[in-house]
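Weekly modeling sync, notes
Attendees: AB, CL, MP (scribe)

Item 1: holo prediction request
CL wants a bound-state model with 2-acetamido-2-deoxy-beta-D-glucopyranose before deciding which constructs to order. AB pointed out that an apo prediction alone won't tell us much about the pocket. Agreed to run with the ligand included and paste results into these notes for async review.

Input as submitted:
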Amino acid sequence: MARVCGRILALCFVVAVLAAAGVAHGQLSPTFYNTTCSNLEGIVRSAMTQAVNKEARMGASILRLFFHDCFVNGCDGSILLDSTANFTGEKNAGPNANSVRGYDVIDTIKSNVEAACKATVSCADILAVAARDAVVLLGGPTWKVELGRRDATTASQSAANSNLPSPGSSLAQLISAFSAKSLSARDMTALSGAHTIGQARCATFRSHIYNDANVNASFASLRKMSCPSSGGDATLAPLDVQSATTFDNKYYQNLVVRQGLLHSDQELFNNGTQDALVRQYSSNTSAFSADFAAAMVRMGAISPLTGTRGQIRLNCSKVN
Ligand code: HEM
Ligand SMILES: *[C@@H]1O[C@H](CO)[C@@H](O)[C@H](O)[C@H]1NC(C)=O
Ligand SMILES: *[C@@H]1O[C@H](CO)[C@@H](O)[C@H](O)[C@H]1NC(C)=O
Ligand SMILES: *[C@@H]1O[C@H](CO)[C@@H](O)[C@H](O)[C@H]1NC(C)=O
Ligand SMILES: *[C@@H]1O[C@H](CO)[C@@H](O)[C@H](O)[C@H]1NC(C)=O
Ligand SMILES: *[C@@H]1O[C@H](CO)[C@@H](O)[C@H](O)[C@H]1NC(C)=O
Ligand SMILES: *[C@@H]1O[C@H](CO)[C@@H](O)[C@H](O)[C@H]1NC(C)=O
């Protein structure tokens, strides 16, 4: 570079400017819409407040929607797309079908944002802000949401089926699924704390309460009452037996007394590498809050489309 600069000064300048622009476009920023949609956060917060007031579980559903977007080809709004002649969408993938909810809430927020800031804010960014607001509205920590993602023009049902971890996962499989997204074991354990809110279907935890050894006997009996050994697959139970609509550290307290609902939850406290961290989070809310918030920012930065890649979708359920 120094040699090129010495000999052709103008070219050197152009190269340096392009390099700087490339770096800037590759990064997300909390102030991305400051001048182009200054009220974005207010619009999202207002709609999320209404949705969560109407049904507290919706906060959990929106948080999960963001996770399932980010883990499948990055946080690019691909999960929001309906299937078309050109691709099969993610909505009907195994981990999402009859399970992921909140698409209508995101569509409503998008309409409100379009009315204020036409063709400016991506669905992927709206989802990132909505997920943060969901956590805050249910009593959890806050963080600055990095912005500047653009929307995918395609979706992948097969990637959704292979990249999202299953509730039957071992600790090693969980660590590896997060590592594939450049997230650490510590990030994985902190992000699993999202299961302090929301519900799961009997089909996802039946095998844990009937067949596993590391489950609290009285807790298993309680859950078996509404989740029979066969049938009732869709019957819901709270992921956090103590407080399903409050974002707190009780999820970890449950794990310590073997009251995790999913096999994958209890894997975090099963005489393995994450036991000490689970104990720490169970007794120190601020340690959990700080790690959760930082891990959400890292999860939100998985493979974003930035610069001129992708598009700003006008309607989250279809490409322009
Ligand atoms: C560690 C691996 C994970 C596994 C195996 C897993 C699995 C599951 C399963 C099976 C359900 C119940 C779905 C149903 O029965 O319909 C669920 C619900 C949920 N998950 Fe996870 N999850 C994981 C990580 C995460 C992460 C990282 C987040 C967010 C940061 C998250 C947020 C949620 C929420 C909030 C719910 C409740 C949703 C609702 O009530 O609508 N999960 N998860
Ligand atoms: C962007 O807006 C936020 C929220 O209003 C404000 O805190 C921040 O200082 C602004 N930043 C810039 C660079 O304008
Ligand atoms: C499918 O892709 C083709 C080529 O890119 C495009 O012209 C067409 O509009 C797409 N169809 C749908 C339903 O999106
Ligand atoms: C974990 O270790 C404790 C103490 O050694 C033991 O009582 C318990 O059975 C072990 N649990 C599992 C699932 O191996
Ligand atoms: C099972 O849960 C109860 C509280 O409901 C607790 O007192 C007990 O210690 C738990 N058992 C185990 C093995 O963690
Ligand atoms: C709880 O965690 C925070 C953040 O890691 C730490 O600063 C604090 O000292 C911890 N408190 C206790 C009582 O261990
Ligand atoms: C967005 O597109 C879907 C699917 O075509 C359609 O049903 C819905 O009404 C559209 N939403 C708006 C606000 O136009």
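Recorded for review: The chain has two domains: 40-165, 171-298.
Action items: CL to compare against the apo run; MP to circulate these notes.
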